[in-house]
Each structure stands twice: as C-alpha cells, then as structure tokens.
Amino acid sequence: MRPKTKKILFLFTTLIFMFFYIPIIILMAFSFNDSKVGTVWTGFTFDWYKSLFSNDQIISAVTNSLIIAVITTLIATVFGTLAALAIHRYNFPGKKAFNFLFYIPVVIPDIIVAVALLALYGWLDITLGISTVFPGHVAITISYVMLVVIARLAGLDASLEEAAKDLGANEWQTFWKVTFPLIFPGVLAGALLAFTISLDEFVISYFTTGPGSDTLPVLVYSMVRLGVSPEINALSTIMVLLIVIMVVITGRKMRVSK
C-alpha cells in the first residue's frame, strides 16, 4: 500500500472516530454546566449529579433497565451457549432449520418483534409491565450470544478434549475443566454484548412496558421531546465511565485467560 493511500485511510478513520466520540465528549462536558440550556456554558458545577440521585423517576428507570439487562444476560448467555454447543457438536433432525431460527432475530427489525409481542400480549390479555419486556430482549440477545460462542468453538482444538478423556475425565469433567475455560472469553464477550443490547434496547421496551415500568431509553425519549435535561447528561457520563472501566477489566481478564 502506498504511503499516500495510508495517510488518506488514516485521515478517514480519524474523522469517523471524531464523528462518533466528539458528541460524547461534549455531552460529558455539559454535564458539569451550570446552565439548564445545553448549548450555553455558564460555569462549572456538580449540582446536576446531586439532582440526578434525588430524581426518583430516573433512578426507577435505571433500576428497571439494570434488572432487565442482568436477567436477560443470564438467560441469553446460558441458553445461547447451550445452543452453540448443540449446533457445533451434534447432528440431529432439523438442525439447519434450528440454526436458521437463531439467525432471524439478528436480521429482523426490532419493530416487528415489538409489534408481534404487543399483539400476542393483547390476544392473551396480559397486562404490560416490567415482566413483559423480558421475552423480547431474550429473543434478540440469545442469537448474538450463540453466534459469538460458535465462533469461539470453531477455533477450539478438539484434541485437548480427547486428551482429557484419555486421561480418565468424563464428559462433565471435560466440559468444566477443559472446554469451558477455553470458550470462556467467547461466553464473556457474548454476555457483555447481550447486556449492552438489552440495556440500550428502545423499540421493544417502548411497545412492551406498562405504566410505571419505563426503562431508561424510554424515559430519555420522553424527556428529549421537551429538551435534554442536564441530569441525563450526568447519567450518560456516569454510564460511559462505568462502561470504560468494565471494558478495561474485561480486557485484562481475557488477556490473562489466554
């Protein structure tokens, strides 16, 4: 590749990253702004962080989102990993159809899943609430976990499992002592992906939550229509910092596991 082409690609990549990250940096900066107007800087303050932790509506929405994301992640990680192991290792009738079903949530628009669930709940006369959000979130995240774990299994050296069996380990011992530690980075990556998707999911949550059970994305959407509150900027800053810390810790653990 010519030096001039490398410079152009580097410049193009830099511009893309600037396009994504500069708005986030500006949002974080304005979380310390003394003014309610998000476009005018009037001074430095921590008041919006104090106001955030005293806002029961936002705290309730964050709590709902975290509960949904954690439970969704646990369910999707367990069943996604089991599905990946089944598809990767075994041949059974309907395997292709079973495999195809797991790809559908990846490509199908969320709005279709949301409307279908809403119609189903209406037909079954189910009252909407926080519990009605889980099926939609699990349905879309389990496929992502399965795909990530399958990719990890594809690079697994089968001779290691065979060696463990030759040394007297049974199927259960081989899985927990050999297989699972080797695929754990993939399982962890799938779990983090499921958690992020569930925490960020808006469309399905918007259609399937009931009164008093709003998730954070739904609440932010309802607030944005009247203008972005500095409290939302403060909350976004905290979430960005927590995500960065979580990614750094996860990256170190994955390097250690290798």
UniProtKB/TrEMBL annotation:
UniProt-listed PROSITE patterns: ABC_TM1
Biological process, per Gene Ontology: transmembrane transport
Ranges that cross the membrane: 9-32, 66-88, 100-124, 136-154, 175-197, 232-251
GO cellular component term of the entry, any: plasma membrane
UniProt xrefs under Pfam families: BPD_transp_1
Keyword match Hydrolase: no
Compartment annotation: Cell membrane
The keyword Aminoacyl-tRNA synthetase belongs to this UniProt entry's keyword annotation: no
Keyword field: Cell membrane, Membrane, Transmembrane, Transmembrane helix, Transport
Family affiliation: Belongs to the binding-protein-dependent transport system permease family. CysTW subfamily.
Designated name of the protein: Spermidine/putrescine transport system permease protein
Organism: Salirhabdus euzebyi
Species lineage: Bacteria, Bacillati, Bacillota, Bacilli, Bacillales
